[in-house]
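Bit of a strange request maybe. I'm writing a small parser for C-alpha cell strings and I need a real example to test against, not something I typed by hand. Could someone generate the C-alpha cells for this chain?
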Amino acid sequence: MPTHHTPVHLAAAEAVAARAGVAATDLKVEAPPRAELGDLAVGCFAIAKAQKKNPAQVAQEIAAAITPHGPIASATATGPFVNFRLDRTQTYRWLVDAALRGTLVPGQVGAGKTICIDYSSPNISKHLAYHHIRGTTIGHSLAQIFRALGYRVVGINFLGDWGATHGMVIAAYERWGAEEPLDVTKLNELYVRFREEAKNNPILEQEARNTFKRLEDGDPHIRALWQRFRDISWAEFEEIYKLLGIEFDEIRGESAYEPDMPRVFEELRPLLEESEGALVVPLEGEKTPILLKTKDGTTLYATRDVAAAEYRWNTYHFDRSLYVVDRGQALHFRQLFKLLLKAGHTWATRCEHVPYGLIKVGGKRSATRLGGVVLMRDVFRIAEADVREVIAKVNPNLPPDVVDDVAPKIGIGAVVFANLATQRDKDIDFDLDKAISLEGDSGPYVQYSHARCASIARKAGETITSIEGVDFGKLAHDAEWEVAKKLLEFPDIVVRAADNSEPHGVAHYLLQLAGDFSRWYTLGNSDPSLRVLVDDPDVRRARLALVAAVQAVLATGLSLLGIAAPEQM
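Reply from user aminoacidic:
Good idea to test on real output. This should exercise your parser:
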C-alpha cells in the first residue's frame, strides 16, 4: 500500500522516481532511524531488483544525480537508502500553513468512497455496560478517521433487539410484572431472574421460546411490550452516546430484517440442509455448518446478519463494510462472509471483521473503585470525580465554571484514550489511576499539552491563525525541527490508521508529539533565549506559529479519537 505523500514527501519521492523510472506514489518515504542520517529516506530495494543492480549502488547513483530544489536541500546515500535533508524554512511554511488551515489530514483520500461501520450495537433491555466501551470507542474513532479522510461514512448501530433473549424478558414481565416507572435496570433484573429460575424449571425455557415465536408471529400485545422495552433502552443508550459525542447515521436493529426472512430463506434454499430439524449451510473449511433456523422455526443472529449485509450493499454500495465486534465473534463473521460468497454475493470480499480484545480492571485501587461497577456511565462518573481531585491539586485557581466544563471532558477522554491507546487485538488491563494521570501515556497528558499550547497563546496575547508575516528562518534550533518532523508524520499516521482499522496509531502518535513538544518547550527553563515568548518579536512570532501548529494537530488528533481538546486544565 503506497504511503500518503505530503508535498514535502512527494518532492523526495519524485526526485528518486525521476531517476529510477518508477511512479513517485509507489515509493515509500519515511523518517530515517537516526536524525543525523537526514530528514527523509527512500529505499531503493525494488528499483535495484528491477535494474538487477546492488541497492547501495543504485542509491549512490540516484543521490549523486539529485540537485537541491523546492523543499529538498540535499541528498546523500547511506547503504540502500537515499537520504534527504529538507530546506527547513520552506518546510515550516508549508507545514504550519497546512496545520492552521486544517488541511494536514488529506481529505481527498476517500473521495467518492463509502464505508459502513457497524459498532457498539448493544442488546436492548440491558445496560450499556463497561465492556461495550471498546467496540463503541474503536468504532466511533474509525468513523471520525474515515470522515476526516473524505470518505462517506455510514455509522451503524445494529441494535440487538430480536431473538430468544427478548422472549425471556417479555415472558418474565408477563409472569412477574415490574414496578413502574420501568427502566433498563428493572428489565435487566427480570432477565436475570428468569435465567436463574429457568435452571430449575425447564417449563420457563419453553415459555420464552413460545413468547419469542408470538413476537415473530406479530402478536399485538407482545409486540407492544417489545416496542416499549426497546424505547426505554434506546433512551438510556442515547444519553451515553451524547456524553461520548456519538451520533449514528443509521440505527437499525435486528428486528428491521424480520420481514426479509422469507426472502432470505428462498434465496438460500439451494444451499440449505436439514440437521436435527434445524436448517444449516455447510461451508468449505469449516468443521461446523452455519445455523440459520432452529428446530422451533425461529430465526437466528446469522440469518438477520445476511439480510443486514444485503440491505447495506443495496442501500450504500460500500467500498468497505466493517464489523467492529469483539474477537470472540471471529468464527461467526468468518462463516457469515463465506456464506455470503457462496450465495453469489461477490461484494462479500469487501466485508471485514474488526476484532478487539477484552477489557479487564487492573490495579488494586481500580479494582476496589470499579469492582462492582458494570455501567459505562458510572465509570465516566467516577473518572470525572477523580479528575476534579487532580485539577484541585495541579491548578487550584481554575475557576469553578471552567472545572465544571472540563472535568467531564478530561474524565471521559481519559477512559476513551485508555481504550484506544492499546492495539485493538490486545486485551486491556484498565487502571483508573494511570488513565487519569497527567504524566505518562494517558489522554489527560495529551489534553494537557493542548491546553498548554492555548495557555502560551493567551500569555502572548496573540493567537497565530495564519503564516502571514511569520519569518520561519528564525526557527534555528534542532528541538524545534524535531517537533516539525513529528508534525510531518501526521498525514501518513491517519491514512495508515484507516487502512488497518486501527486507531491505536493515532493515540501513540499524539503521545510522541506531546513529548517532542514538551522537550522543546521546557528548554526555555534552563536557557531563556530558547523560550517561546522571547523579546525578539520575529523569533517570538515564529515560535508561536509552531506552537499553534502543534495545538491544531493535537486538537485534530484528539477529535479523531472522539476526545475533547480543552483550552484550560
